[in-house]
Specification:
Number of domains: 2
Radius of gyration: 18 Å
CATH architecture of the largest domain: 3-Layer(aba) Sandwich
Number of strands: 4
Distance between the termini: 46 Å
Order of helices and strands: HHHHEHHEEEH
CATH superfamily of the largest domain: Glutaredoxin
Bound molecules: FE2/S2 (inorganic) cluster
Strand content: 5-15%
Length: 160
């Protein structure tokens, strides 16, 4: 019995045969697992080790080195907001404050069921669309403070 779905096993097999060494496939394999499960669970690491011969220490090293990989459950919508210079000059601080306010209010109402999480991020690589945020994998450009309420309410209801 596998902890991975059939579709996920096919993707893992694909990446393991695509690269010259198994170790080279760790990053795309982890992306696939996180896309399907939201985070990398200990049992995922164990199965990567036992069935796919990926070294568990190397897998854990990759997960802990890159912020993008999560080894704990995340909220339904993880917002990564760029706080690098271009985005900051074009209003990132104000927009981040607005998001933080919404999250605080939601946490007061919903506790752990709050749908949004926030991470401040270095450059997201789309400076010409500054200020920029990612909501899970969707990039949102020109995410200025005046647009935050409308943008977030597309994903989940906001507190009044
Ligand atoms: S500075 Fe924000 S995307 Fe580059």
């Amino acid at each position: 019995m596998s902890v991975f779905s059939e579709g996920l096993r096919k993707k893992i097999d694909h990446y393991l045969t695509r690269y010259e060494t198994r170790r080279s496939a760790i990053l795309p394999v982890l992306h696939c697992i996180q896309d399907e499960h939201g985070w990398i669970k200990p049992e995922h690491i164990e199965e990567l080790h036992s069935k796919y011969e990926l070294d568990r220490v190397q897998v854990k090293e990759v997960i802990t080195f890159y912020d993008i990989y999560k080894d704990k459950p995340t909220r339904k919508f993880l917002i990564r907001y760029c706080q690098n210079i271009t985005c900051t000059m074009l209003g990132a601080k104000e927009a981040i404050c607005r998001i933080e306010d919404h999250i605080k209010k939601l946490e007061a109402e919903l506790g752990d069921d709050t749908p949004f999480g926030l991470e401040k991020f270095p450059c997201l690589g789309k400076c010409d669309g500054a200020p920029v945020m990612l909501v899970n994998k969707e990039r949102v450009e020109h995410a200025t403070v005046d647009k935050i309420d409308g943008l977030l309410s597309k994903y989940a209801p906001l507190p009044k």
